Amino acid sequence: MNVYTYLTLKAWNTGLQLAFGILTTYVFLRILSPDVFAAYILVSAIGAYSSLADLGCSNLIYVSMRKAYLDGEHLGTGLEEALAALLTYGAVVLLVLFVVGALIVANVIDNHGRPLNLILYLLFWLLLLPWNIVRTTANAVDLYVPFEVLELTRHLLVTAFLITLLAGLEVREYLIAVNVVWGACFMIAAFYGRRLFDKFGAGKGSIAAAVVRLYRDRLASMKAAAAFNVSAFTIYVFPYFIIPAMSFPRDALVVFDTFYKVGRFGATAYRVAADAFLPMQTRAVHEGRTRDLMSSVGMVLAFQFVIFLVGAICLLAGSDRIFPVLLNGKVEISQAIVLMMVAMLLLELFQLTLEIILINSGLFEPMAKLYVTVVTALGTVALVSYLWELSFPLFLGMYVLVYGVGAILHVPLFLHYFGRQNRVSQTD
Asked: In whole angstroms, what is the distance from residue 213 CA to residue 81 CA?
């Protein structure tokens, strides 16, 4: 695999992903009222939160398949487990779609007279769950480049359809189109999957046994991986569900959605380097070349710091022009919120880089303990904010503070597991 080809594709995909997130807010606030847009935000949060049904399976599959692939061992077992997880997640998608769809139709979740639109939007986000297994399997066997090419095509199409909303395309037509794109992507993935099954002699009839291996035989690892995944995702999205219950202004959810997207945009951009160097890093960990691992981490951090500087300058110097245009002048982003955005971008730089290495090296248990602790602290923040009726900026500031402590704690955790090996290699 050519790391520079992969890095280029990741850069293009990241740019399109960032553009899509920004354009979603820009376009929807021009064709929908803030109240209707808030319903779409809530539905997308539910769809994204459903990825917690992964329960760490994708991480376990990646670690086991990657190790077998690097060792030159048989991959049939890993492929069977990947297919079992894919089918299981498909069932989860249908279940969540049915339950939440019923709430939308019943107007428990405000449908504003367009329940089918919200259900289609929910489906668009739910399909990220099974797609995660496709990504995991491709990455484990060094099919990074074909997967990124497919992702690039998908991002181009859904972004193009989004732009056509401004040209008069109906929202329902847009939502149908983007879900059709999803269907085409899964069909292409199935083509690659069949070739892998034939190449490594995996048996499609062993799905039941594969499910048992995932959810029973690896129970200890599953618990730790599940705790990590649930906690990691909750850290980012729990304010979506907490804010509506607070006595905050009505536009607080839109403000947090903007805050969240800026942070996630930064994390997505950071992944350009982090993911591009991951194949090299997993090989270095596997072969005990800790010095090379540390060197690659330094390169990734340097690349990401440049991204942080660009983002920080844009936010600090241009927020008074960027956000009024993005939010169509309907919601105000204060300077205090902007400073919190900059702080989150800096904290994510360290957290994301080290998290990717630790998790993809199979260190689920220590990461789970750290993230459960952070979630517990955030729950305390939410309770205090509710009981004392704190202002929204103060609640968000406390959220950033707790997140920051968790991010910084990644450094001693990383050095504990890899720094000692590095010192030993330097003395040899």
From this structure: 8
Residues 6+ apart with CB under 8 A from 138: 144, 146, 147, 192
Question: Which residue type is seen at 54?
Answer: D
Three-state SS at 142: coil
DSSP string spanning 326-342?
HTTTSS---HHHHHHHH
Write b or e for each residue in 120-153: b if 16 or more Cβ atoms lie within 10 A of its Cβ, otherwise e. bbbbbbbbbbbbbbbbbbbbbbebbeebbebbbe
Pick from 11-25, 105-119, 153-167, 349-363: least confident? 11-25
In this prediction, residue 336 carries a pLDDT of 94
Instruction: Kindly tell me the number of DSSP H helices and DSSP E strands found in the chain.
Output: 17, 0
Write the DSSP symbol of residue 108.
S
312 versus 110: the higher-pLDDT residue is 312
330: left (phi over 0), alpha (psi -120 to 50) or beta: alpha
Helices 128-140 and 57-71 cross at an angle (nearest 10°) of 20
pLDDT digits (tens, 9 = 90+) for 256-301: 989 998 998 888 888 887 888 888 888 888 788 888 888 888 988 9
The per-residue pLDDT of the chain, averaged, comes to 85
